Amino acid sequence: MTEEAPPGGDEVDAITESVLTASRLLVGVSAKSVAAVAGPITLPQFRLLVALGSRGPLKLVSLAELLGVNPSTATRTVDRLVTAGWAERNSNPQSRREITVGLTPQGRELVDRVTDYRRREIASIVQRMPAERREGLVAALQAFSEAGAEPPPRTSPYDAALTQWD
Amino acid sequence: MTEEAPPGGDEVDAITESVLTASRLLVGVSAKSVAAVAGPITLPQFRLLVALGSRGPLKLVSLAELLGVNPSTATRTVDRLVTAGWAERNSNPQSRREITVGLTPQGRELVDRVTDYRRREIASIVQRMPAERREGLVAALQAFSEAGAEPPPRTSPYDAALTQWD
DNA sequence: GGGCAAGATTTGCATAATGCAACCGTGGTT
DNA sequence: AACCACGGTTGCATTATGCAAATCTTGCCC
């Protein structure tokens, strides 16, 4: 089933290949940005910070759900981030059974630095592209994403900071 | 800031956004494929299998390097895969200090099943795209990847199976 | 008001992933 | 033979994860 010649197959293969190659490039850029700017933090931890940065303070369950991990994992990752001074737990006066997790100023600054770095990297790549290809890129990718039944297109700058499983 | 007009910055933002959105979609597809087809295997383990599938048997250090992990991590992940019957260690008659790691038939079959599933998912997305956008996608993405100074463009089908850090 | 079901978080337990450093063979050099 | 670089493994410590059980809060019914 991976063979047939009719109009469809080869083109699909070509697209798959090109999208994945580009995706790989991008993920590499993200990883590099984290490593370059944010010394002693792990990727899962940073991903959590990014989520908080883009959505604002969240209760633990929502956070876990957003990241696609078990609440217990979220709890413990938050523990570490709190210890490191990047996140904080705040009790919710409304219902004392839930807590909200948010960024500390240091946490936000960390996320910002990484995001800026990453944006510059990407910009430098885009600027090396032939200009006439750029519009095509945006249009085609949007069509692709729409066809893939995208979730809500959040347009926060943080959103872009780490692709992994978001 | 997502509006357009001036030549430089906004366009870069738009591209960044669209590429990342698409990338996110794709990574989701990959994860879903692994989960759907390959029950009890972790992502790092599967990633290792994919590497073996695309490059053939490798010595341990090369494998670790390819995956970007420490040799000790590779050793132990291979241990688990061997136990599970998906990979095998073979001693190299040439030099007894190196070993090569390869897929077992079961391992290859697992990778194939996931890859096929994933390809079908992507194909179904691409087929929902307006046809006239498709060529633009390939051309633009290739330009993007080239501008990003891609590593060797391996064109194996396995290559596409998991994007994460590859 | 007491009791109970449902919801939110945390803890206990077990396993995987990771990196670093130390260690053991192997192969080549001098 | 003496050394040294290379490949792989093991010991140690920390993080990441999921599942299940325990804890605390809320809301609701009788």
Automatic annotation (TrEMBL), chains A, B:
Record keyword DNA-binding present: yes
Q: Molecular function terms in GO for this entry?
A: DNA binding; DNA-binding transcription factor activity
Q: Does the keyword Cell membrane apply?
A: no
Which keywords accompany this UniProt record?
DNA-binding
Q: Where is this region: Disordered?
A: 145-166
Q: Where is the HTH marR-type domain?
A: 12-146
What's one Pfam family the UniProt record gives for this protein?
Answer: MarR
Provide the GO biological process annotations.
Answer: response to stress
InterPro entries under this entry?
HTH_MarR-typ, MarR/SlyA-like, WH-like_DNA-bd_sf, WH_DNA-bd_sf
Output this protein's name. DNA-binding MarR family transcriptional regulator
Organism of origin: Halosaccharopolyspora lacisalsi
